[in-house]
Amino acid sequence: MKKIVMMMFAALFTMNVMADNVKFKVNNMHCENCAKRVEKTLKANDAVSEVKVNLECKAVCVSYDAQKTNVEALQKALSDAKFEAEIAKQCNDKEGCKGEGEHKCGHNDKKTQE
Q: In this model, does residue 12 exceed pLDDT 80?
């Protein structure tokens, strides 16, 4: 039993070490349909584990297995799908595409009351 637990821990640790994140700015992502196409395009790559799209900021954060793909391949997939994607920076859960509240781009999800 101890061996199994240790192997599981090692596997989880290895997966986290190989995972990487990137944030793209997608200038021509204008609507919800575009956002869905961006997400679908990136998720078609088996190495991609998570995609967070923020339409207001025109940004997308991607978590992927760095052993199986790279940033250039992800950017090329977006380009092939006719999206103008530029690498913004590395992203993590603390910054970038959270989806609620204040964003790094200055947008706020909460509608202001007049």
A: no
**Helix/strand/coil for 56:** coil
- Percent of the chain beyond pLDDT 90? 59
**Domain boundaries in the chain?**
17-86
**DSSP characters for 59-106?**
EEEEEEETTT--HHHHHHHHHHTT--EEEEE--BTTBS--SSSB-TTS
CATH of the domain spanning 17-86, picked from 1.10.10.10, 1.10.287.130, 3.30.70.100, 3.40.720.10: 3.30.70.100
Residues 62 and 75 sit within 8 Å (Cβ to Cβ): no
Tens of pLDDT along 46-101? Answer: 999 999 999 999 999 999 999 999 999 999 999 999 999 999 865 654 444 544 44
